[in-house]
Amino acid sequence: MKVATFTMLLAMGTTAQAMDYTNGYALETKDGTNVGFVLGSPSFKAETGDCVFMLLPQKPEAVNTALGVAISELKVAGEHTWKKSGGAILIHRGNQALLAISASGEVADSSGVIVGKAIAMPERK
């Protein structure tokens, strides 16, 4: 799926809520079960950068959710690039959109399906 189409799908489901940009996000299923993390470099406050995923499920069954499978595959694949687009953070490898975090914190897979939510991790001062 092209990044522009992916961005359009995200924009349809977002609210005007501002998301905190940070060095990382805890990733949860739609029911609030922690599945893992995404860590960005430099910070997600920049316009573009690289990121890695960590699978750290709160419950073992969370690994088998759509978000758990996505995080597992992204972790194994290694480092990815990300960029901001219309308030969303788009995670991709080359021209392939892989995952997106909307401005309201929803996490969508490459088909635009909402698979979870992202919670900004507080930055250390």
Structure description:
- Helices cover 18% and strands 40% of the residues.
- The protein is globular and about 35 Å long.
- The chain starts with a helix and ends in a 5-residue tail after the last strand.
- It has an eight-stranded antiparallel beta barrel.
- It is built from two helices and eight strands; from the N terminus they run H-E-E-E-H-E-E-E-E-E.
- The protein is α+β, with helices and mostly antiparallel strands and 125 residues long.
Strands, helices and their partners?
Layout: H1 3-12, E1 24-28, E2 34-41, E3 48-55, H2 66-77, E4 80-85, E5 88-93, E6 96-101, E7 106-109, E8 114-120
Antiparallel strand pairs: 1-2, 1-8, 2-3, 3-4, 4-5, 5-6, 6-7, 7-8
Broad shape: globular
Contiguous helical run count: 2
Helical residue percent band: 10-25%
Largest sheet: 8 strands, antiparallel, barrel
Structural class: alpha+beta
Strand arrangement across the biggest beta sheet: 1-2-3-4-5-6-7-8
Q: What is the strand tally? A: 8
- Low-confidence parts: 1-18
Distance between the termini: 39 Å
Element pattern in H and E: HEEEHEEEEE
Concise description?
The protein has 125 residues and is an alpha+beta fold. Helix content is 18%, strand content 40%.
Name a few traits of the molecule.
125 residues; alpha+beta; 8-stranded antiparallel β-barrel; 40% strand; globular; 2 helices; disordered N terminus
